[in-house]
């Protein structure tokens, strides 16, 4: 092995620097860096000579190691969780998220499904009974979604997020509340009686038609049941929540509807409500005290008069809240409906994902193509599907890119003179780069490093460009040297090429 030069002595073949640097070298300010450069060049040259003497063994062992590491791609994990992708581990945001989960618990978690309605004609006002009627049509279609999995049927009433069913001493009332307790749906329709149509569930009492939110008047029901049961605790609960008459005391969007209750303010006048006035200040769920949906959660593109009164809006939004997989699992654990299917949290997540995909599909198809409004449905599963689609490796794209680079390297380095032709060098170089990229990613997978969209879509082509560039630099340096020139004095790649390589390498580290 070549001996590194002693300090203060430069190698014989060292190229002197420019004259402007000579005074600094004589003063000693650049002597140590130059010695370090010469030292490492000597070590690398000795390593290269050793590899050259045992080229067959090195090539065999290298290909064997690269191929073994490339097999690690079989256990690669692609990360699509937004929290894991964008929140740095150990950061302030990560600590606050962990604190929130610990204090609020899993019960505070839910998933949101959004239904957004916009006019086809830009700038058109959506605060009209007709536009809200179309929104009701789309929301009704979405709320009726059912999926069949594991031999069971799953609808919104089974998987939606509910704020918590109260405990009532009276068993009959408790069972009725359990069946009727509404899902949490943030919608502009809650300002009107039609908001009750989105709530599923029904209860039966002797001598009465099926009780649903469209015909349920809690105050009247308490008066009818008062002589038969003690309901003071239940009455106090309703008064604290300010339930009142629930939905039957709100105006009807379409007073001509045969089911519009007589208690609606516009039932007798048959006058369509002023939608902007009703939505001003937001809407309430069945509880006026605990369920207040602000305007910003329901409307978009709002315009107001100088006094701050709502005049118009360009978008309507309804949000359906579903339980988290953990909540759904706990809710049905031990239930007779799931005792025969080996119920697990993974199955609960599969049910929620299937329902959300069906929700998006049916909601977007709810309105006819010639309608004046258009519906945009979005769910958390939709975002996950998009991230999965962008993170999947396109084999055709990667193979096509490497084949194009292979053809380019072979053609540009090919010469009519066989002694000067380096087409085989370009071919072998591109193949070696491809194997190096695969083995590097395989090693990362074996170390447990998760991949993301940048890893699968950007890194293979970035590494290809960096690796092939080195092949051209080496081929150019050897081409410039006359035949028979000793290795020690062959010209090296120019300094600007090394600078460019450093910049490209820094970019790859950032990716």
From TrEMBL:
This is Protein patched homolog 2 isoform X2. The lineage of its organism: Eukaryota, Metazoa, Chordata, Craniata, Vertebrata. GO terms for biological process: negative regulation of smoothened signaling pathway. Residues 394-492 form the SSD domain. GO terms for cellular component: plasma membrane. The keyword Zinc-finger does not apply. The keyword Transmembrane helix applies. The chain crosses the membrane at residues 395-414, 426-451. It is a multi-pass membrane protein. It is found in: Membrane. It comes from Tursiops truncatus. Belongs to the patched family. Keywords: Glycoprotein, Membrane, Transmembrane, Transmembrane helix. One of its GO terms (molecular function) is hedgehog family protein binding. Signal peptide: none annotated.
